[in-house]
Design a protein that fits this description.
Blueprint: H1 2-23, E1 26-27, H2 31-38, E2 44-51, H3 54-64, E3 75-83, E4 86-97, E5 102-110, E6 115-124, H4 135-138, H5 163-184
Antiparallel strand pairs: 1-6, 2-3, 3-4, 4-5, 5-6
Helix pairs in contact: 3-5
Length: 187
């Protein structure tokens, strides 16, 4: 009898560990709530969907240093927050690869200063690193510009045990600046 209980325990443990990759995917914030968090003072929100040409895709990929966009994903949705008819923030949703899965960010740029206005983690598929969604971690990036270096544990404090997730946050910010400068500002 003890042997059967032990065998069942081992079986249950193996199943739980095997399924653990599926248990860590989470939608942390819906888009509407994220917009209200990162652009709270807006009167209106507009979606400015821009189709990327092959030439623009090539420029973005060159500046990013890797193939950020392909012909398959050639549209960008710029979420434009306005107050009294004036653009006060432009947000972009960016997805970055973590160690085990994708991490989705929404990052708002202040067009007056070209600096990060605010950001949130929308969704997370990592087993570790969930603390990157905490305000304390994200606030380190507010006020950063495209020219600011973003190296983990040099220019901002990473999350212990989640270096790849921390790097994904800095990469999302760098990529957001690239698409903002190469697409939105040049419209």
């Amino acid at each position: 009898m003890k042997r059967n209980r032990f065998g069942f325990f081992i079986y249950a443990l193996v199943v739980c560990v095997g399924l653990s990759g599926f248990l860590f995917a989470a939608r942390l914030v819906e888009d509407a709530e994220a917009i209200n968090t990162i652009i709270p003072e807006k009167d209106t929100i507009e979606h400015d969907i821009v189709k990327l040409t092959p030439a623009v895709i090539a420029k973005i990929n060159k500046r990013a240093g890797y193939e950020k966009f392909t012909e398959a994903n050639k549209e960008l949705d710029f979420i434009v927050g306005k107050k009294d008819g004036k653009v006060i923030a432009v947000a972009v949703i960016d997805s970055e690869q973590g160690k085990w899965g994708q991490i989705d960010f929404m990052i708002a740029i202040d067009p007056a200063t070209s600096k990060v206005k605010d950001l949130v983690v929308l969704a997370f598929e990592e087993k570790r690193g969930r603390p990157i969604a905490r305000r304390k971690f994200l606030e380190q990036f507010i006020g950063k510009s495209a020219s600011d270096p973003l190296e983990v544990n040099v220019n901002f404090e990473g999350i212990t045990g989640a270096t790849i997730s921390s790097k994904a946050a800095s990469q999302a910010i760098l990529d957001t600046f690239v698409v903002y400068e190469e697409v939105y500002k040049k419209k």
